[in-house]
């Protein structure tokens, strides 16, 4: 394996991996036999229990057996188990309780090896780096284990040390997964198997990034920068002097895992508030920053005693382009508004459909399946219902899942699973819909303002009910303040860019040959509690002043240009 490592220099290269194992088929053969043997024995045990009517009696034994199998098969399979451990709606409780242990209760590797790795990577002795360090790891995960330590300067830190021989184990499993994906793709309905190899490659790329702790440290600092103004999200500080490729030293976080509901309640923390923080932070990552945590399982998320939520693992991250972020917002708007033709076009832009796909027959299918998933009440909506319903379309239409969106879907499903473990009656829309409404109403960018117009106007007519719904939904977000939104709105209306909206709004007030005083009255009843007359006047004056400043700044260069010419006698 040394030849592969030297050629790839820590990068995932599926072609190089395939070349390596092509000339060493016995390695892949024995690993494949081990995997098949483990799961075949497990499945036979389940069928035997059913045949002997001993399912209830042996259920805890089988759950323990599954965890032990995944642990024995190593990091790749542990990652699968971690993802399943966040889905109480998919996995029965006895299995779930065991899979949760895969998050940070895995068998540790030898301390002597870990301490030797620290000294080798940091090129100094343990005593030179830390004034004290725990004699045994406080947590062991799929890719490494963590020690609690203290620097000579007094700071309490977590020291993350990578497992030995990790790269060879990952490459072999990824090779087998990629080979299996290519073999089974033709047997799947339509193109459900399309890009399966690309999904494996995306997973492999992220795994190789995850085992580079210098990359993880950079990710943590970038994530912290994105949330620097959000006092509810905590990111641990990185100690770069004591960080290398296989050793990471970061600030120690005092808190409780999100699955430890008893400790969370004993600390007086509100689980619904924690859910709101987690879901809102997830939406910000996707729709605002574009830089998102692709592995948010409960072992990586902590509730702090002061009510903040802490992220502690930044190995598996991904970056969305500006176009993808904008198209995602479009897709959410079109889904909420039930504009299924536009939604189908969004799927083309996002790569779920190829550009040459005829979307005409797909539109009614989207309406039938997704319309039913959204339900009669917005409270019936959850992400799982959408993904389950959408999967039905994969059998009948040429949908595919782009490799990057496999990570996004995994992240969203995991976050919803965490929320369900805290509150089984949780509905993701109760948090996400107010967030999207608030984002549209604040409209701090031209792109968001255009999307707000798309929501408020349909077929040239102003949708009063949609504006009412947006305001009412946004007010469900405790952080939503209507006054700054009003100021932004007034500035936009008075600006050159808002000329079209001014015209459309005046037409809306008098369309259908009548004054829409009843609609205006309903909206006023919604906002009058927050918009006192004197505050509205101040906001209006501030907005006009801001517009005046912008216009003055625009003409000032012209005035100065004329001033430099000498006066003619």
TrEMBL record:
Keywords: Kinase, Membrane, Transferase, Transmembrane, Transmembrane helix
Superkingdom of origin: Bacteria
GO molecular function list: kinase activity
Gene3D superfamilies, alphabetized: Transferase(Phosphotransferase) domain 1 (1.10.510.10)
Matches recorded under SUPFAM superfamilies: Protein kinase-like (PK-like)
Signal sequence coordinates: none
Pfam families registered for this protein in UniProt: ABC1
Domain ABC1 atypical kinase-like: 101-344
TM annotation in the entry: 28-48
Stated family: Belongs to the protein kinase superfamily. ADCK protein kinase family.
Name of the protein in question: AarF/ABC1/UbiB kinase family protein
Organism: Gloeocapsopsis crepidinum LEGE 06123
């Amino acid at each position: 394996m040394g030849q592969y490592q030297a050629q790839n220099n820590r990068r995932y290269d599926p072609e190089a991996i395939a070349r390596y194992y092509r000339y060493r088929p016995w390695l892949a053969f024995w690993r494949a036999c081990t995997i098949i043997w483990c799961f075949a024995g497990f499945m036979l045990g389940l069928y035997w229990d059913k045949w002997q009517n001993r399912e209830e009696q042996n259920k805890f034994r089988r759950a323990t057996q599954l965890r032990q199998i995944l642990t024995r098969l190593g990091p790749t399979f542990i990652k699968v188990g971690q993802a399943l451990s966040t889905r109480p709606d998919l996995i029965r409780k006895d299995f779930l309780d065991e899979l949760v242990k895969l998050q940070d209760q895995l068998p540790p590797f030898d301390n002597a090896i870990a301490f030797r790795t620290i000294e080798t990577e940091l090129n100094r002795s343990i005593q030179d780096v830390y004034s004290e360090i725990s004699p045994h790891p406080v947590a062991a995960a799929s890719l490494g284990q963590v020690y609690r330590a203290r620097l000579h300067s007094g700071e309490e830190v977590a020291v993350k040390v990578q497992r030995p021989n990790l790269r060879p184990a990952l490459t072999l499993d990824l090779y087998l997964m990629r080979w299996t994906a290519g073999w089974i793709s033709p047997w799947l309905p339509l193109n459900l198997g399309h890009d399966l190899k690309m999904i494996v490659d995306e997973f492999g790329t992220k795994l190789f990034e995850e085992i580079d702790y210098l990359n993880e440290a950079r990710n943590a600092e970038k994530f912290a920068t994105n949330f620097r103004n959000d006092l509810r999200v905590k990111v641990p500080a990185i100690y770069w002097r004591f960080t290398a490729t296989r050793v990471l030293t970061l600030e120690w976080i005092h808190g409780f895992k999100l699955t430890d509901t008893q400790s969370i309640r004993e600390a007086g923390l509100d689980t619904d508030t924690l859910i709101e923080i987690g879901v809102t932070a997830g939406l910000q990552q996707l729709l605002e920053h574009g830089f998102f945590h692709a592995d948010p399982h409960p072992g990586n998320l902590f509730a702090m005693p002061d009510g903040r939520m802490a992220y502690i693992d930044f190995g598996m991250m991904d970056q969305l382009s500006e176009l993808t972020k904008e198209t995602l917002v479009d897709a959410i708007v079109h889904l909420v508004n039930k504009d299924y033709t536009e939604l189908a076009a969004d799927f083309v832009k996002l790569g779920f459909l190829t550009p040459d796909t005829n979307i005409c027959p797909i539109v009614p299918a989207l309406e039938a399946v997704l319309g039913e998933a959204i339900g009669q009440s917005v409270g019936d909506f959850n992400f799982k219902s959408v993904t389950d319903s959408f999967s039905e379309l994969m059998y009948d239409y040429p949908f595919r899942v782009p490799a990057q969106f496999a990570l996004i879907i995994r992240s969203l499903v995991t976050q919803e699973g965490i929320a369900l473990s805290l509150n089984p009656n949780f509905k993701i829309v109760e948090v996400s819909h107010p967030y999207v409404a608030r984002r549209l109403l604040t409209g701090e960018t031209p792109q968001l303002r255009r999307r707000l117009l798309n929501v408020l106007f349909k077929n040239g007519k102003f949708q009063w009910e949609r504006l009412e719904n947006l305001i009412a939904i946004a007010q469900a977000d405790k952080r939503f303040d209507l006054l700054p939104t009003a100021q932004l709105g007034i500035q936009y209306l008075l600006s050159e860019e808002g000329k079209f909206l001014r015209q459309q709004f005046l037409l809306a007030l008098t369309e259908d040959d009548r004054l829409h005083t009843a609609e205006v009255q309903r909206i006023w009843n919604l906002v009058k509690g927050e918009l006192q007359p004197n505050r509205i006047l101040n906001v209006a004056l501030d907005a006009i002043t801001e517009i005046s400043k912008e216009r003055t700044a625009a003409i000032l260069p012209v005035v100065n240009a004329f001033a430099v010419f000498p006066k003619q006698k």
